[in-house]
Amino acid sequence: MQPLPPxxxxxxxxxxxxxxxxxAPSPDFINLDNGYFGMPALPVRAALRCYxxxxxxxxxxxxxxxxxxxLERVMAALAAFTGVGRDELLVTRNAMESFNILxxxxxxxxxxxxxxxxxxxxxxxxxxxxxxxxxxxxxxTVDVPLDPSGDDxxxxxxxxAIGPRTRVLVLTHVVHRTGQIMPVAKIAAMARRRxxxxxxxxxxxxxxxxYRVPDLGVQFAAFNLHKWVGAPLGVGLLYVxxxxxxxxxxxxxxxxxxxxxxxxxxxxxxxxPAPILAVEDALAFHHAVGARNxxxxxxxxxxxxxxxxxxxxxxxxxxPRDPARYGALGAFVIEGMAAPEVVRRLMDDHRIFTVxxxxxxxxxVRVTPHLYTRIEDLDALLAALRVLGGVSRS
Length: 394
What we know:
This protein has two domains: 13-31 and 290-393, Aspartate Aminotransferase, domain 1 (Alpha-Beta Complex); 46-285, Aspartate Aminotransferase, domain 2, CATH 3.40.640.10. It is α/β, with parallel strands linked by helices. 41% of the residues lie in helices and 15% in strands. Strands 2-8-7-6-5-3-4 form a seven-stranded mixed sheet, sandwiched between helices. The protein is globular. It starts with 12 loop residues before the first helix and ends with a helix. It has helices at residues 13-20, 42-58, 60-82, 95-105, 122-135, 151-161, 184-193, 273-289, 291-309, 339-350, 375-393, and strands at 30-31, 89-92, 113-117, 138-142, 166-172, 197-202, 220-224, 236-240, 315-317, 330-334, 352-353, 355-359, 362-367.
């Protein structure tokens, strides 16, 4: 695909149809759960097949001789994409593996407090609960409003929760439940002033939002490459600032790397090379679309359905109203109808696939369009919600 203009209008349907043709979703249903992992574009899928054939044909020769040099090409591309040093990045299988390397290797002491939000990722919360018992930590939790009035209110919420023993603040960049974008840089700046480290869960942010890692102002972050960057399933990324690598104990065990070498945190033994090699192709496609174009198109698609859904009887949208506070992800509930039942009816009656997510003490339905999503697909969702909202009120 030829590169798009750097400032393509998000509602230029003719231009976005060209992008849409680079994907091949199933024709059997409308997939509006693209938040689990992103569908690779056709050029990336083709490259993955070629790489796998190459690996299978050359076997150990490929891993021992060809792969190290090819991996360095991928890492150079990732360093350019993220804006940090190649020696500050490590390829992992997913954001949760990156997160576990960070928090299980972090130099906690018994009695340290970790601050998190109830909207953080379920597996993140579960990992921290495990460490709470294993290392004698304490967890402090904040509840972030679904539709905040501004960044300052969120920063103040976290600052009020910091105490004398707070050691780490875990911060989700894009909330996987509702799509809310958190003001990471402002919270991180506040935490630095208070002497608190910030670990960012950037699983949904990289490739969905137009930013580079130094913009966040943090020293630790965990990412996925198989969500919005568009790499094949099974590729994540870990970032640790150079000066902090030595503070993290190796989770997998490694004595052959220097203390300040991030490679000592990734002693995974043999890994599938093909998905990693295809990261380079995914980045090429991402750059052809353009980070700003991609962000604004995804935001436009979410705005299309959320603004119209807010006017439907019985439908409550949980995503913030301000478009600057969301990207691709959105969520809703239907009054009087359980979220699992909504998901079932959407699929069974309307051939629209969505997913249940918990938020606070309730369940909601998450909707996540992708670059291949048509406006007609979102209109089909709205038509289905009009029916379901009417059923719930009858």
